[in-house]
């Protein structure tokens, strides 16, 4: 069920107070990516090993200033975006190379957000990033097969199902931590 090599990843995107409840329905609200984090993982003898890490910040093109809401939620600051953020297409190319045609798992299939950003930024319909969509999978199916009620958790809190220790100081809703939370949970499932 879990392949021998795969990618775990998570994204964060622009949001404002009430935007989720409104489903980003105001004309100026767009879910622009601001970070993508990933782990390249290998499964050997029912143990998971991190082979490589990926962590990039992305400069939003339309709403270039982060809201206080998203800064407080994710811990990603405007300074971080301004100094470390790259353009969406550069990050997509790096992420594409990093994944090397491996299956990509996220909590709820974050490819939807990637696809929205491709539409928003008018990325060519024949782009390899659009053809890539079949590689993206929802990891919640794996967790549900172990009888975990995923509706009670997010990517950053799923580790709590097993009362696992959070050894890294980071915000939930930080793509780097949320990806590691997925890893800890999968690692625990395989070792049980």
Set out the fold topology.
Layout: E1 5-13, H1 19-22, E2 33-44, E3 47-57, H2 68-74, H3 78-84, H4 88-99, E4 104-106, H5 111-120, H6 128-131, E5 136-138, H7 140-145, H8 175-191
Characterization of this structure:
The protein is an alpha/beta fold and about 190 residues long. It has a single domain, classed as Ribonuclease H-like superfamily/Ribonuclease H (Nucleotidyltransferase, domain 5, 2-Layer Sandwich). Helices cover about 35% and strands about 20% of the residues. The chain contains 8 helices and 5 strands, in the order E-H-E-E-H-H-H-E-H-H-E-H-H. The protein has helices spanning about 20, 70-75, 80-85, 90-100, 110-120, 130, 140-145, 175-190, and strands at about 5-15, 35-45, 45-55, 105, 135-140. A 5-stranded mixed β-sheet has the order 3-2-1-4-5, with helices on both faces. A hairpin with a 2-residue loop joins strand 2 and strand 3. The longest helix has 17 residues, at about 175-190.
